[in-house]
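The data are quoted verbatim here:
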Amino acid sequence: MTVKNLTKTATPDAPADEAKPARASNAAGTGLETITLSNHLCINGTDHLPGAKIRVPADYARRLRLSGYVART
């Protein structure tokens, strides 16, 4: 069995409270939202660990909420 080591932080050189923008397709006219992840998420080859704060387009944030990827605050 192969086990991945996910002990590294999502943004090692950035402060924990600073949100890192994620590269997701942005529809015209929608703003960005900051979300806190509840699960591991890979966007365009970039791994985001649970607890990471990322900025994504509003429509993508809504889809992530419906799928259970956004932590309840």
